[in-house]
Amino acid sequence: MYPLNWKLIEFMIRTRLKGMGVALITPFKEDDSVDYDALLRLVDYQLQNGTDFLCVLGTTAETPTLTSEEKLKIKNLVVERVNGQLPILLGVGSNCTRTVIETLHNEEMMRGVDAVLVAVPYYNKPSQEGLYQHYKAIAQSTDLPIVLYNVPGRTGVNMTAETTLRLAREFDNIVAIKEASGNITQMDDIIKNKPANFDVISGDDGITFPLITLGAVGVISVIGNAFPREFSRMTRLALQGDYNNALTIHHKFTELFSLLFVDGNPAGVKAMLNVMGLIDNKLRLPLVPTRITTFEKMRAILDELNIKC
After folding, report:
1. Of 18, 71, 75, 178, which one is the catalytic site residue?
2. For residues 179 and 87, what is the distance between their CA atoms, to the nearest angstrom?
3. SS3 (DSSP) at 198
């Protein structure tokens, strides 16, 4: 067991990553360049509408298509705009352990960051022991709080509850997991057996409500890009035990949850934001916008919800 450092203690006293975090998208212009002005408008939209923390440069940001220079500029702009009002969780995942550690040692990239999100390595399919050693090396290389990210639908390998709990018990700076395995039994096992200083965060909007009733502390949300006020309210109500009112809001978004990912992420939420007039409906290849049929279904639901940005 490694002793708590003062930076981690300060973080844990000041805030925990609870409530609704938003996996911030990257808006693009029609010429394929990053729309930094739109990015800042989206950050302002989150600051004004109840978001609890921001996840920057995660999967929803189309990070694999961004250059190193673009990533640094996006991070710097968000940190400057937020100006300490919300915690910043930075995505630093890679399928190369050394690459993650090198990123964590990049002082310019880490400046202004409160915690890091580290996805299970993708494509090379490590064993459970390999996953443990990957996160062990990362935890020993940084003072920053670390949030694990289990998303087997993207990475090709599931990190078991046993491995997650092993890491949670052995490393004090591994503070949470974003769980997107879709396996409620596995998530419940982690919640039931985790140490007190370790949290479970939903990685799927559609199961946020039921997962909070089991003991999760919030969500890193995609739909929150478009509906931060409504979805953060649902999350807070559920955390307060007001399940009836939380469920009412949850059910209001049920159809949008399915449309959100039918053509891939972040195509769905970008279509929503485009309907709302916040961004161009532009993604970088190999990702493409939603089909017109999905787009029109979303437009009809948004008109019916009558939610204004």
Report:
1. 178
2. 19
3. coil
- Give dist(CA 70, CA 224) in Å, integer: 23
Q: Is residue 110 very low, low, confident or very high in pLDDT (cuts 50, 70, 90)?
A: very high
Residue with tokens 């939380």: 246
| pLDDT exceeds cutoff 90 at 5 | no
DSSP per-residue codes, 162-184: HHHHHHHHH-TTEEEEEE-S--H
Domains and CATH numbers, the chain: 6-244 (3.20.20.70)
Which residues have a Cβ under 8 Å from the Cβ of 53 and sit 6 or more positions away? 15, 17, 19, 21, 22, 86, 87, 88, 89, 114
The sign one gets for the Cα dihedral 90, 29, 267, 296 is positive
Strands (E), the chain: 19-23, 53-56, 88-91, 115-119, 146-150, 174-179, 199-202, 218-221
Q: What angle do CA 207, 26, 87 make, to 5 degrees?
A: 65
Measure the CA–CA gap between 271 and 264, rounded to whole angstroms: 11
- Annotated catalytic residue, options 45, 135, 149, 297: 149
Does 270 qualify as catalytic in the annotation? no
Whether the per-residue pLDDT at 4 is higher than 90: the answer is no
Look up the pTM and report it: 0.93
What is Dmax (Cα atoms) for the chain? 54
Residue showing tokens 């008109």: 303
Question: What pLDDT band is residue 153 in, cutting at 50, 70 and 90?
Answer: very high
Q: Which region among 10-24, 99-113, 231-245 has the lowest average model confidence (pLDDT)?
A: 10-24
Query: What whole-number distance in Å separates Cα of residue 96 and Cα of residue 229?
Result: 37
Cβ-Cβ contacts under 8 Å for 98 (sequence gap 6 or more)? none
Query: Two tokens at 233?
Result: 């309210």
192 is catalytic: no
Compute CA 226 distance to the chain's CA centroid, rounded to the nearest angstrom: 14
Distance linking the first and last C-alpha atoms of the chain: 47
pLDDT of 12 higher than 90: no
